[in-house]
UniProtKB/TrEMBL annotation:
Secretion signal span: 1-19
Record's compositionally biased regions (Low complexity): 19-46
The keyword Disulfide bond is annotated on this UniProt entry: no
Organism of provenance: Klenkia brasiliensis
Region entry Disordered, spans: 18-58
UniProt keyword Signal, yes or no: yes
UniProt name for this protein: DUF7373 domain-containing protein
Domain of life of the source: Bacteria
Length: 403
């Protein structure tokens, strides 16, 4: 099942609180939001192709990139907790604002034709995190030039005490900071590095036990580069025309209150798994039942202070829908620690409440009919038994899919 989403920024997990595995500010003397500039890198051979205007096609391309972004728990099985930031990016400034904060990285990405990107983040119980970003650039020369300059910027992180670290298996020199510690007090090192692959640019920032960061980042990015080998970026002039809802699922996903977030859109299996709580288990369940695609709609209602998410899945037959319906309900109750409750509006629906910490709760309920399965999340509730929103939304969702 899709992880709960917190205020348009990240996919959260039902069994963990959101973390903070984000890079340090890019300068000890530059405040977030400043316009400091990096030393420009040499112009590549040929002309940088301008990125298309940000639009629905940009989001579709970002979700294509999601499908080839490395799944962190496959390399670090203990890093299953959610952390910041993650999800789709349609602008270099968006990347900079959530990952870095002083403008220099965004300027460099824009300089070399940034089109779209996707980020994944995972952390362990001691807050050791891995943060990945995959960005689509103008052309291979531009991606390589951007990597050179961005690796140089990483070494300027005075507050982190970064020093060069040779990563021969990746063919680049990254930035390593030593002498840190995790939330359990164990000594750690931090490494970050940019690596080009054709038009694509991969970035990793991670913490590891002292002495282990170069090996871990090499293994993570080796997996990442392997996934990119089979990926064909969309030519820039074709991005605006990319189908944004190829299966026509959007009309069957209930409109949730508030403004839609950047996660909203259609996902194939691999793209969906980048939002899933347990991608290994869910891959098995969905592929065994002929998963055809998903539509994910998230929104934030500022007035109510609530986040909402609807996840709509489609399968070839009602029998397969029912199998996944049952499988998800079992996972919620067992693997993810949900507390079952009966929703007054639809008592037979599988519904679960979770303690989000800090006096905040969220609810998730499922409905299914025919080839469609849907779940609805309501996050930010002051009480686990506040059913007002779910009592309205779940019947609306049921009516949409049962015709």
């Amino acid at each position: 099942m899709v992880a709960a989403t917190a205020v348009a920024l990240l996919a959260g997990c039902t069994s963990t609180v959101q973390g903070t595995a984000s890079p340090a500010p890019t300068s000890a003397t530059t405040s977030p939001g400043s316009t400091a500039t990096a030393t420009p890198s040499a112009a590549p051979t040929g002309q940088v192709t301008p990125a298309p205007a940000v639009g629905p096609g940009t989001g579709a391309e970002a979700r294509r990139i999601a499908a080839v972004t490395s799944l962190i728990p496959l390399i670090s099985p203990e890093r299953t907790g959610s952390c910041f930031p993650s999800g789709p990016f349609g602008s270099a400034s968006g990347v900079d604002g959530l990952y870095f904060g002083d403008g220099r990285v965004g300027q460099e990405l824009d300089r070399w034709g940034f089109v779209a990107g996707w980020g994944n983040c995972g952390q362990d119980a001691a807050n050791n995190g891995t943060l990945l970003l995959v960005a689509e650039m103008s052309d291979p020369d531009s991606a390589a030039a951007a990597a050179d300059t961005l690796n140089g910027i990483s070494l300027e992180l005075e507050s982190g005490g970064y020093e060069p670290v040779d990563l021969p298996d990746l063919g680049v020199t990254g930035a390593l900071s030593t002498g840190g510690s995790d939330s359990a007090g164990a000594p750690t090192d931090t490494v970050q590095v940019w690596v080009p692959s054709g038009r694509m640019l991969a970035y990793a920032y991670l913490d590891a036990p002292a002495g282990g960061a170069p090996d871990l980042v090499t293994r993570q990015l080796t997996d990442q580069l392997g996934l990119l080998q089979g990926f064909a970026p969309t030519p820039q002039d074709q991005v605006p025309g990319l189908p944004t809802d190829p299966l026509g699922l959007a009309p069957f996903a209930v409109q949730t209150p508030g403004d839609a977030t950047r996660f909203t859109g259609s996902y194939d299996l691999e793209g969906y798994l980048r939002l899933a709580i347990d991608p290994v288990v869910e891959r098995q369940l969905l592929t065994a039942n002929g998963f055809s695609g998903a539509y994910y709609r998230t929104s934030y209602d500022e007035a109510a202070g609530l986040d909402f998410a609807v996840s709509l899945y489609t399968f070839p037959t009602s029998a397969q829908t029912n199998a996944v319906y049952t499988g998800f309900a079992q996972l919620e109750a067992t693997a993810f620690g949900g507390t079952a409750f009966a929703l007054p509006a639809i008592p037979e629906a599988p519904c679960f409440a979770f303690d989000g910490g800090g006096g905040s709760f969220y609810q998730r309920c499922y409905v299914g009919y025919g080839s469609y399965l849907a779940s609805i999340d309501v996050l930010g509730l002051a009480a686990a038994d506040d059913y007002a929103q779910m009592n309205t939304l779940l019947p609306q969702q049921r009516d949409l899919i049962d015709g």
